[in-house]
Write a structure and sequence with these properties.
The chain is of the alpha/beta class. Helix 5 runs parallel beside helix 8 and helix 6 crosses helix 8 (212-240). The longest helix has 29 residues, at 212-240. The chain starts with 9 loop residues before the first strand and ends with a helix. The structure holds alpha-D-galactopyranose (GLA). Residues 149-150, 272, 274, 305, 307, 311, 343, 353, 356 line the site of alpha-D-galactopyranose (GLA).
Length: 666
């Protein structure tokens, strides 16, 4: 059994039958069966059609949809339908609508417009979730609950009075007293000392930079406020249908929500991923987000939404060329997804997403899109046995949301060019290019299963984080501007790297961010010259650290740039290419890519259980050496492959399954 009650890999998409006359539904289920669809997500935005008036439910149409799907062997990821509050609710209770940082209450007429802290909104969602759970608890099509939709999409935060009250309640739990809050927020700066809780407000639009500690707490609170919405619905679903898995769809590498905390309440981690076909870095960015999803609960996850071709929400919505939908879908499977799902099944005829691609396009079944949908369904069936298999990574990249929020505080940092997603990619991309499996991990997690741990940036670093890193026995790399502040965004005594000082054996005297377009030379001990951009530091390594590379030229000439103490390496700069350090670290840690050295450029290699996925994102055929002695069958074609090497066509993939040896067969 897979992630849900459906065996094997999942294949399907969002299905919005309420946008179509019922006779179309018959065609839908017939074509779904033809394509091998076994799961669809239903009712995501259906609140106003299920409950058109307070407590007045109209389930009839949804009953018929679920019955019809079930009759055709299609299971349902059933939404609680709470993503868009209906007109009657927002008109009766205007305070349900969110308020932006400038104080404007946002109008109805789009979607997902709600104040996360509104008791009226929360109570209404819980009522509807209960009604849905009680109605469909025994329905044989029900495979999974889909709570709300993409929390933090459209509404990330709300600045209304109710949110302000909720924020104050949250702050009293965190800081206990007003004295505690004043100390943590450093309100002696700029005359912000509070003498009454009622004076404390969300960080609304102000004349100048907002207190960054206040902003950090606000981001924590906003993630928690949405999480409370999810948890309230989840609790009802678990009470009524304890055995049905619950999910809410995540949005890849998203800054706004602390997904480590969120994943705890998910039975199945699901993700919506929309790599831009026009972005040459799309495959590597997608791979990073998929590895994050797999790492959240360290188990297979599900790609719940992706675009069959173009989206409709970018400035320019480039379609996927022939074969790209398939390749990108196989990529998600390679990184641990137990299925491939799309937004959406049938292309809409109206609304803001009428030009968004779908599995079944406006042009119907005589189209390239439909042919590719059918072919992909067949591929997914061929790979069915991959479901449930897991990935073992020896490298972990550290990601901490508190630190991310602190690092990207506006208008108060040495530079606004340090963006965590880019810093993660700067290490992830070369690992990915070498076919090295990577997990993401929070700094407090037990890291003992890894051989190499990389913290691209740990701006906010507590003593507990530092202790966890000091206890890690393998190779550790810490990137620049780390160990700067504590949990309250206050600079550590003595400056950076604060609690990491002992471990790294260095002290930072001065930040030296580089203007755009300016490069700083860095020379390694063996004379390799590298170019660093964006950031450098005036470092004192006169303690116990060995110097691996020095700056050359300019005011930093001759000063340490990269250091090592024991097995802890510190980079005080951002080399354009960290390869010299990375290759040496991988060698020291005894880590190789899954196919060994020599993975051609543009080819992605991932091992999942016994299966080896090779995906060629390039435009030329690529020959990949195979692990010596092993013999494989390509699961996609069923053909045995010659030993030694395999050639993968452009925009194509092979999924290798080890063939038993003659002895094993006997
Ligand atoms: C998100 C939403 C979907 C749809 C798609 C379009 O993933 O969850 O409802 O709007 O984007 O890309």
């Amino acid at each position: 059994m897979g992630l849900t009650r459906v065996p094997g890999l999942l294949f399907g998409g969002d299905y919005n039958p309420e946008q179509w006359p019922e006779e179309v539904w018959q065609e839908d289920v017939r074509l779904m069966a033809e394509a091998g669809v076994n799961l669809v997500t239903v009712a995501v935005f259906s609140w106003s059609r299920i409950e058109p008036g307070p407590g007045a439910y109209e389930f009839g149409w949804l009953d018929r949809v679920l019955d019809l799907l079930h009759a055709h062997g299609i299971a349902v990821d059933l939404a609680t339908a709470t993503a868009t509050p209906p007109p009657w609710l927002v008109r009766a209770h205007p305070e349900v609508r969110p308020v932006d940082a400038a104080g404007t209450r946002l109008e109805f007429g789009s979607r997902q417009g709600y104040c996360p802290s509104s008791p009226v909104f929360r109570a209404a969602t819980v009522r509807l979730a209960r009604a849905m759970a009680e109605r469909y608890r025994e329905h044989p099509a029900l495979a999974m609950w889909h709570v709300s939709n993409e929390y933090a999409d459209h509404t990330t935060e709300c600045f209304c009075e109710e949110s302000a009250r909720d924020f104050r309640r949250w702050l009293t739990v965190r800081h206990r007293s007003l004295d505690g809050l004043n100390a943590a927020w450093g309100t002696s700066c700029w005359g912000q000392h509070y003498t009454d809780w009622a004076q404390v407000e969300p960080p609304r639009k102000a004349p100048g930079p907002v207190n960054p500690a206040q902003l950090l707490d606000w981001r924590r609170f906003s993630s928690d406020a949405l999480l409370a919405c999810f948890e309230a619905e989840r609790a009802v679903l678990k009470e009524v249908t304890p055995d049905v898995p619950v999910t809410t769809n995540f949005m890849s590498v998203l800054r706004d929500l602390d997904y480590w905390a969120w994943a705890e309440g998910e039975d199945v981690v699901t993700d919506d991923a929309y790599p831009d076909p026009a972005d040459p870095r799309a495959p590597v960015k997608a791979a990073l987000s998929y590895d994050l999803m797999r790492s959240l609960k360290r188990q297979p996850w599900l790609l719940l939404e992706s675009a069959p071709s173009a989206v409709s929400w970018r400035a320019v919505n480039v379609p996927k060329d022939p074969g790209v939908m398939r390749l990108h879908s196989l990529q998600a499977l390679a990184h641990g997804s137990d299925g491939v799902m799309f937004f959406q099944w049938r292309q809409a005829r109206y609304g803001p997403e009428k030009f968004h691609s779908a599995m079944l396009p406006h042009g119907g079944t005589g189209t390239r899109q439909w042919r590719e949908t059918l072919a992909l369904g067949a591929d997914v069936r061929r790979l069915s046995e991959v479901a449930g298999s897991t990935t073992r990574a020896e490298v972990a990249l550290l990601l901490d949301w508190d630190s991310w929020w602190g690092l990207e505080a506006p208008e108060s940092m040495p530079t606004d060019r340090l963006r965590l997603h880019e810093l993660l990619l700067s290490w992830y991309a070369p690992l990915h290019a070498r076919g090295v499996a990577v997990d993401l991990a929070p700094p407090g997690r037990d890291l003992s299963g890894y051989r190499l741990v990389i913290a691209p940036n740990l701006y906010l670093c507590t003593a507990a984080h530092a202790d966890a890193l000091a206890a890690f026995p393998g190779q550790l790399v810490v990137g620049p501007f780390s160990g700067v502040v504590d949990a309250a965004d206050q600079v550590h005594d003595g400056g950076a790297p604060g609690p990491l000082g002992e471990l790294l054996g260095v002290r930072v005297e001065e930040w030296r961010p580089l203007p755009d377009g300016v490069a700083q030379e860095v020379v390694t001990a063996d004379g390799t010259v590298l170019s660093a951009r964006t950031w450098t530091e005036w470092l004192d390594a006169s303690g116990a650290a060995e110097v691996l590379a020095r700056y050359r030229g300019g005011p930093l000439d001759g000063r340490p740039a990269v250091t090592r103490r024991g097995s802890a390496t510190y980079l005080s700069c951002l080399p354009e290419d960290p390869a010299p350090f990375l290759d040496e670290l991988l060698a020291t840690a005894g880590i190789t890519g899954v196919t060994g050295p020599g993975l051609p450029a543009g080819v992605e290699a991932c091992r999942r259980g016994p299966y080896l996925f090779l995906l060629n994102h390039g435009t030329e055929p690529a020959t990949v050496p195979l692990p010596e002695g092993d013999r494989f069958t390509d699961l996609l074609t069923g053909r045995p492959l010659p030993a030694g090497a395999v050639t993968v066509g452009p925009c194509d993939a092979v999924v290798l399954k080890p063939r038993p040896t003659p002895e094993e067969r006997a």
